[in-house]
């Protein structure tokens, strides 16, 4: 079950399309869907979480808390809409594409993909691109 929560003045235009896409990502990785919560917020909200729970005094676009059990993906994915907007501008991509990238990124972490080394980050980027394409197919 995928839930969307809003802690800022932002809302997905078609939640069911995003929900279906996330389910497709999970199935494409041979995983099972548990309870996944996406929480869309602003920089301040996510910064507070970063400081309190991770002891990082920096801005970030996403923080995911993984509660996966075996093959069933469960977790909370916090996304700063402000940071996604800024990153979209910095990377010269549409906001909608950068949002998909970040949303997929959280799920990919739950699937076991990492991004701390250059090789892992390269694989993560390839997987993000692959999963973004699934969204366009689903619409």
TrEMBL record:
Location(s), subcellular: Cytoplasm
Lineage, top ranks: Bacteria, Pseudomonadati, Bacteroidota, Flavobacteriia, Flavobacteriales
PANTHER family given in the database record: ENDORIBONUCLEASE YBEY, CHLOROPLASTIC
Name of the featured protein: Endoribonuclease YbeY
Cofactor: Zn(2+)
GO cellular component, one term: cytoplasm
Known role: Single strand-specific metallo-endoribonuclease involved in late-stage 70S ribosome quality control and in maturation of the 3' terminus of the 16S rRNA.
Assigned keywords, A-Z: Cytoplasm, Endonuclease, Hydrolase, Metal-binding, Nuclease, Ribosome biogenesis, rRNA processing, Zinc
Homology family: Belongs to the endoribonuclease YbeY family.
Cofactor binding remark: Binds 1 zinc ion.
Gene name for this UniProt entry: ybeY
Broadest EC class assigned to this enzyme: hydrolase
């Amino acid at each position: 079950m995928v839930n969307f929560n809003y802690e800022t003045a932002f809302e997905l235009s078609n939640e069911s399309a995003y929900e279906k896409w996330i389910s497709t990502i999970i199935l494409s990785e041979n995983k099972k869907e548990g309870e996944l919560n996406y929480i869309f917020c602003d920089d301040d909200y996510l910064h507070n979480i970063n400081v309190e729970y991770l002891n990082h005094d920096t801005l970030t676009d996403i923080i995911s808390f993984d509660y996966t059990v075996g093959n069933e993906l469960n977790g909370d994915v916090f996304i700063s809409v402000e940071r996604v907007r800024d990153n979209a501008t910095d990377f010269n991509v549409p906001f909608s594409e950068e949002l998909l990238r970040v949303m997929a990124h959280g799920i990919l972490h739950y699937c076991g993909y990492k991004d701390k080394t250059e090789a892992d980050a390269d694989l993560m980027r390839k997987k993000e691109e692959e999963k973004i394409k699934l969204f366009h197919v689903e619409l």
